[in-house]
Amino acid sequence: MKKYLKIGLIFIGLTLSIVTANSCLAASSIVDTSNPNYASGNYSLNDIRDYAVYIMKLILSLVGTISLIAFVYGGITFLTSAGSSSQVSKGVEILKAAVIGLIITFASVLIINLFFSGLGVTWNQTTGVVTSK
C-alpha cells in the first residue's frame, strides 16, 4: 500500500511541476527577441530588472508546487498513521516544514518588493508587469 501511495504522490508531484513550469515558460521566453536591443546587445538596467522578475516568478511557481506536494505528503502520512506515534510525528514535522518554507518564501517576496520600491519600481505580482515611477 505504501509503495503505491509513494508512486502516486511522485506522479502527482511530477505532473504538477510540469504543468506549473510549462504555464510559466509558455507565457514568454526569458530573452525577448522582439526587443530592439536584442540585435545590438544594448541592454539597460530595466531589461535586467525584467529578467530578475521573470526568474523570481519561475522560482515562486516551483516553490508553490513543492509546498503543495509537501502538504499532500505530510497530510497523507498523518492520516494513514493508524495510531503509530512515529508516523504521526513524521507527518506533523513534514507539515511544519511546509508551513515554514511558505513563510520564508512569502517573506522573501516582501523583501524583494521592499527592495524594488526603494529603487522606485512597482511590480504587479499577478500580471508580472514592471513599471518605473
Give a structural overview.
The structure is a single chain. This protein has 133 residues and is mainly alpha-helical. The protein has a domain of 93 residues. A two-stranded antiparallel sheet has the order 1-2. A hairpin with a 6-residue loop joins β1 and β2. α1 runs antiparallel to α3 and α3 runs antiparallel to α4. The chain is elongated and about 65 Å long. The model has no long low-confidence stretch (mean pLDDT 75).
Query: Largest beta sheet: what is the strand line-up?
Result: 1-2
The dominant shape is elongated
SSE string, helices as H and strands as E: HHHHEE
DSSP helix count? 4
How many E-type strands?
A: 2
Question: Strand pairing plus helix content: what structural class?
Answer: mainly alpha
Write down the Rg.
20 Å
Q: Could you give a short account of the major beta sheet?
A: 2 strands, antiparallel
Amino- and carboxy-terminal Cα gap: 57 Å
Model regions low in confidence, pLDDT < 50 over at least 5 residues: none
Residue share in helix: over 70%
What is the secondary structure topology, with strand pairs?
Elements: H1 2-27, H2 36-40, H3 45-79, H4 85-118, E1 121-123, E2 130-132
Antiparallel strand pairs: 1-2
Helix pairs in contact: 1-3, 3-4
